[in-house]
Amino acid sequence: MADDIFIGGGGDAYSAPQVLLLDKSNRHGLVAGATGTGKTVTLQIMAEGFSNAGVPVFLSDVKGDLSGLAVAGSETFKLHDAFMKRCATIGLDLKYDSFPVTFWDLFGQQGHPIRATVAEMGPLLLSRMMELTDVQEGVLNVAFRVSDEEGLPLLDLKDLKALLVWVGQNATELSLRYGNVAASSVGAIQRQLLVLENQGGSALFGEPALQLSDLMRVSADGKGEINILAADQLMGSPRLYATFLLWLLSELFEELPEVGNPDKPKLVFFFDEAHLLFDGAPKALVDKVEQVARLIRSKGVGVYFVTQNPADIPDDVLGQLGNRVQHALRAFTAKDRKELKMAAETYRDNPVFDTAEAIQQVGTGEAVTSFLDAKGIPEVVQRTLIRPPSSQLGPIDQPTRDALMAASDMAGKYDQTLDRESAFEMLTKRADAAAKEAEDAEEKEAALEEQEREFKQARRYDGGETTSRSTSKRSRSRSADTGFGGALAAVVIKELKGTTGRRIVRGILGGLFKGR
After folding, report:
1. Rounded Cα gap, residues 437 and 512, in angstroms
2. What are 151-175's pLDDT values in tens digits?
3. Coil, strand or helix at 267
4. Contact present, 2 and 19 (Cβ < 8 Å)
5. Which CATH architecture has domain 5-114+210-407?
């Protein structure tokens, strides 16, 4: 198998062959360009190259086009002649081939279900997903702390909702321990959870949760598995999409061991529509992305951001991206021209041409590129003809997708949801136990009252006087027999012993949860 990944190049007005070095590919990268300029094809040929080198890949398929990676290209394809002409220009002997692909889908429709637990997602990313305020995020952090201290596992959304009810019922005591826990903040979080459910977010949370090792498989013939997340429907909830991918990246960062500078990555992660990650993101989240981008390369993971404009990526993150493919940018407005100039300034100048002009002039399937050399230094920017893909250009049909999913190693592993005992079930049991205890106490009190009446009746028949019980409750009952206050107290006690009383008792069950 080839050691490095051929991207393109060649021709009179173009550079020598452009190659992405495997041992530098974990230094991250950027694929940018306006809509329709060829970003998807560049992503496809990079995925092919990594797979051929035995490197697993994870990418999201926003438009459905990347499913063609699972099927070999064909000479009957309408662009075959154009492909052959380009291959002759850049010096490539194109061989059509298919690649091992696993399809994933948060909604379980176009791929195998992919899930995470609420606890794994954590309060920071959940707050981002639900667009919570700082105050509401603080209350969510309290809920997660309570979950840890009370031994209440948070696996799915119903666990989190049940725990928030408990937090609201015990807000006074929790406020003394952790700061203000306002009922209004709890209510606001519950409303945002409802919005998240309506967007299909409940499908993301639960078990069995994704095992990262299932994303890092290699086929029997030595090719890296290409994991494709169906994101066409998911893009209808862009905040959910971006937060899920960031969670997955964070999990890789947390769980994988340090490997230093490997000969090739352990996994390459493509983050398509990357601007969604940073739009309106709080500083804490941007800082987290920067930290992951800076440190995850030592875990053997390469991250490639795919977006329309380099300006979509914060400078601190952009500075971590060593391998770059820049497709055409348009400059119709003053803002466009400013961004074009900024994009050109991020490359090492080539004395042969003006970078800003080249970025405007390259056509579909062309780009200006800069990759790290053997010493890890960015090469001068080059104009490049992007090579054609070996796999099918465009999506596969549904029967083909269904057949590939049925034959996948992941078939059946994640299809059935597992609902084991967690916070919701535990809190429900506590509530039932507290209600049963209150009901037993009420029945015992009723029995004592009945015994008291029978005793009084018996004394009346034998001419004796009834003897007052020595309990404080009976003393209070006797003293309450006189006056307006006594009559009112008697009415209240009678109500507490009836159905209304049971409702009141059950309404304060939050206080009975503690210590159980």
Report:
1. 10
2. 999 999 999 999 999 999 999 999 9
3. strand
4. no
5. 3-Layer(aba) Sandwich (3.40)
